[in-house]
Design brief:
Blueprint: H1 11-14, H2 26-48, H3 54-61, E1 66-72, E2 77-83, H4 93-117, E3 122-129, H5 136-156, E4 165-176, E5 183-193, H6 199-210, E6 216-220, H7 226-234, H8 236-240, H9 245-255, E7 261-265, E8 289-296, E9 299-304
Antiparallel strand pairs: 1-2, 1-8, 3-5, 3-6, 4-5, 4-7, 8-9
Amino acid sequence: MRDREPEKANADSWSDEIGVQGIEALPKRVQRYGDAKIRALDTAKYIGGLKGEQRLAQRVQTCGDYLVFRHYFTVDKVRLHGAKLCMKHLLCPLCAIRRGAKALKAYLDRWEYLATQNTRLRPFLVTLTVKDGDDLAERFAHLHRGQRELWKRRQRGRGSVLDGVMGAVWSYEVKRGSGSGQWHPHLHMIALAENQPSQEDLASEWKNITGDSHVVDVRPIDQVNQVEGFLEVFKYAVKFSDQPVTDTWHCFQTLKGKRLIGSAGAFRSVVVPEELTDDDADLDDLPYATLFYRFVKEGYTLSHT
């Protein structure tokens, strides 16, 4: 295992994936992908030592072996046009960065449209937790059932703290509890409403639903820096690979095939592209230079243009 400190999943590290980037920003972007690739190699090495998992290990190991960027120099925009990617975002930090950024952009775009339709609408960050436990599968199922019941109460029209929520998108995040060392699944949600949902009422309703958990959080998202607020939801994919390899593997084995992101109301129709490279169709008619990067030992090197 390498001793390099992994890059943390925060707004400074990868939310700029959704922004328009020129050629001056490319070295930092390539460095970010290189750090992620190195961590993917550590994960692949661990998986390769497990019985019957050599094919998966090879897939993760070769992810990001090359990256192809196009620099549309007349408008100074750089797009990731091609790459060898494994699409295993719960195991691979590089694919996690790209998947998280795709979801972040899709829902931010939707929110910007909704805000023009209802100027009184505001985004709020809602966090729901359940009590820590040793059994990840059981704790995740408990959280999932609680979340479904919370929305069913709203749909039944019998009174719920979410009655004023016009749309929501949420994701499940899993990590070890800092104090307990046990599994701590929780849920981050962007809730759109004209008025802030009551944290006190939500805590009471959540305890009534789960039977063992009342810790919730409701806070407005900074209107100036909305990206950081939305990032709390869509960095879930990065967080799975930002932990010890043994925990990452256990999370993958337990949660693969499960939907870790969901939406309701005004956010339900949002489509997140499956393709992890950048969409450059809007630049098709412009001249560009192709930059081909290949991963060599500890990072990417520009092979040719």
